[in-house]
Amino acid sequence: MPFIIGEIGINHNGDIDIAKKLIDMAKKSGCDAVKFQKRTIDKVYLKEILETPRESPWGKTTREQKLGLEFEKEEFDIIDKYCKGKKIEWYASSWDIDSQIFLQQYDLKHNKIASAMLTNIPLLEVVAKEGKHTFIGTGMSNLDQIRSAVEVFQKYNCSFELMHSNSSYPMLLEEANLQCIVTLRNEFNCDVGYSGHETVSYLCCVVAATLGATSIERHITLDRSMYGSDQSASLEQVGLERMVKNVRQVQMVLGDGVKRIYDSEVPAMKKLRVNI
Fold first, then answer.
1. Structural domain harbouring 69
2. pLDDT tens figures, 24-45
3. Whole-prediction pTM value?
4. Which terminus, N or C, of the chain has the lesser number of Cβ atoms within 10 Å?
5. Count of domains in the chain?
6. Which of 102, 94, 79, 72 is nearest to 17 (CA)?
7. Helical pair 180-188 and 143-155, crossing angle rounded to 10 deg
């Protein structure tokens, strides 16, 4: 049965109370874990980018916007305690080595390589050396780039699974290309999950589970109209609940492939087949 992750990311908008509500939402919906993101702004973005004008609730520059969306130790301490109390796992994707080292202070079971960081080999090595099961995003990547990342985790004997993804926000359904789940599984002989960025629909998550995805990651939000670049590609409470329920039902619906006559069919068989 797939491991289901509610991707909070930066949809908390820098507000710990919103983060708590999103954790509650994920727990109520039946998610196995929630995921956040962690960046050291000056390591991830060029200075000239940070100085560009950008209107946001936190100011008029890109730097102010990026800093406004970041959680620091105080907030992550609260998240760690809150998730333990709610009995739901949490982890985060780091976008730089300093952020990954920061996350090491918490007793987390998983790591995540964001698709944007797939080619950052020094970061991948730091993550792989920890030996924690790692979800590896594969959006905007080709097989050679994915292979280079996989080799890092194999080198350090670190458990991993790839996650098929499309890095456009929101993703067009015609670009989902979910057969890549099968392609990646055959190419790298490993578990493969799905990380979705489509709009309201959760169809791709259900189809991914049907194709054998071992994990499903979906962005979540309290309200798709909230400020933020990821909000419109996220599921609200009702959509998340339905997605989790439908994904959990996939294995039951697929069955075991053994053709049989069910007891529930016998009355109809006796009624409709006159030769028995």
1. 3-272
2. 999 999 999 999 999 999 999 9
3. 0.94
4. C
5. 1
6. 79
7. 40
